[in-house]
UniProtKB/TrEMBL annotation:
Entry GO MF terms: transmembrane transporter activity
Protein name: MFS transporter
Subcellular location: Cell membrane
One Pfam entry name: MFS_1
Major facilitator superfamily (MFS) profile domain span: 6-385
Record flagged with keyword Ion transport: no
Keywords in alphabetical order: Cell membrane, Membrane, Transmembrane, Transmembrane helix
A GO-annotated cellular component: plasma membrane
Length: 392
């Protein structure tokens, strides 16, 4: 199987995993009505998709390296399907929680295993491009999940929406058996050695902290963005969601492809982060206080292109760090765990600031976290070499 076909299959798995995050918003009214959920209870249902990642992403990555990437991906697919079945057939609210927890395990195994497989290609330019494109799986998958779920729940039922958003796994799972093993095998260490290795790596820690601040701010920004645009621009929530979804997909793809292109030309990843994180901070702060439609759309486009650049770069830097003998799946797990921790912490903090200071409060918080990622990247100039994408 050509490497590009393998990239498509792996990216498809990532999109399906992220669709499990995006599907929950459109079914919220039906779900709350069916089970009598409070806002807090529904919030728990939504957030449990991050449970496995927040608790054990690093050990899960170390395990995947030892068990084999194909095995971990197959298990991830099976867990995602099982979680969706439990969720879609739930008759009591407790089964909703169980279903989302099971799904979170599948989500974690896929987001750790798929990019680790991509990093095993011999062509460094292909690796840089594949990892950069992989960086779009979250926003694009969430947007697809929103659209598919909204269509399904409008014409059919929320349970059907859950099934439709999980259906691609059933088509992609058999294709995993046809994929050749990664050309470059990942380092296999004991579980403890794999975990300790990535935690001791200063380069890995710096990228993970940068990505964590970025992911937490982005999660909060996207969560409040539909209501913010509707409020600031006096437009409907449907139009607001449409603008966000369209610009998210287009901007992230453009940004990630651009990141892969420049990394493939031996541009230091640290340079990309130093340029685009402050741009993200400026764009999101402008967006959250703007009452002008042209200015808001311009800021939103810039924000999404920068999002693709930053996410794609962070993922593309990991294969170079792994060349120091570290486990690539454990590195992916580290990135995921830091991201999920920040995703749990930043949105409530931003929400509290909105309660106190309106949308301007969110502008300060979100811009601050992106700027914090910039400062983390700046902290050690000597890190430029460890996070440089090698093209030879």
């Amino acid at each position: 199987m050509p490497p590009i076909t393998a990239v498509i299959i792996l990216y498809g798995l990532g999109l399906t995993a992220s669709m499990q995050v995006g599907l929950i918003g459109p079914i919220a009214p039906d779900l709350r009505a069916s089970f009598g959920l409070s806002q807090a209870e529904f919030g728990l249902v939504a957030s449990l998709i991050t449970a496995a990642g927040a608790l054990c992403a690093i050990p899960a990555g170390a395990w995947a390296a030892r068990a084999g990437l194909r095995r971990s991906l197959v298990l991830g697919c099976m867990m995602m399907v099982a979680g969706a079945l439990i969720f879609a057939t739930a008759s009591v609210s407790s089964l909703l929680y169980v279903g989302r927890i099971v799904t979170s395990v599948g989500y974690l195994l896929i987001v750790v295993g798929a990019p680790s497989w991509m990093a095993g290609f011999k062509n460094p330019k292909l690796v840089a491009m594949a990892m950069s494109i992989w960086g779009t799986f979250i926003p694009v998958g969430i947007a697809l999940g929103n659209w598919v779920s909204a269509a399904a729940v409008t014409w059919m039922d929320w349970r059907i929406a859950v099934g439709v958003c999980t259906l691609p796994v059933l088509f992609l799972l058999p294709l995993l058996a046809l994929m050749e093993k990664p050309e470059i095998a990942t380092a296999r260490r004991s579980l403890v050695v794999g975990m300790v290795g990535v935690l001791k790596s200063r380069s890995a820690l710096q990228v993970a902290l940068t990505f964590g601040a970025f992911a937490g701010a982005t999660s909060a920004a996207l969560a409040f963005m539909p209501a913010m645009l509707a409020d600031n621009l006096d437009i409907g929530i449907t139009l607001s969601a449409g603008i966000i979804g369209t610009t998210a997909i287009a901007g992230n793809i453009v940004g990630s492809v651009a990141a892969g292109t420049v990394l493939g030309r031996d541009v230091a990843g640290r340079t990309i982060l130093i340029i685009f994180l402050p741009m993200m901070a400026t764009a999101i702060s402008t967006l959250y206080v703007s009452t002008s439609l042209p200015l808001s759309v311009t800021a939103l486009i810039i924000f999404n292109v920068c999002q693709g650049m930053v996410a794609g770069t962070c993922f593309a830097l990991l294969p170079r760090i792994a060349k120091d003998g570290l486990s690539m799946p454990a590195l992916q797990g580290m990135l995921a765990q830091f991201a999920e921790i920040f995703v749990v912490l930043v949105p409530p903090f931003a929400g509290a600031m909105i309660d106190q200071n309106g949308w301007a409060g969110a502008a300060v918080v979100l811009g601050g976290f992106y700027f914090a990622g910039f400062l983390i990247t700046l902290r050690k100039p000597g890190m430029a070499a460890p996070i440089r994408q090698n093209s030879s």
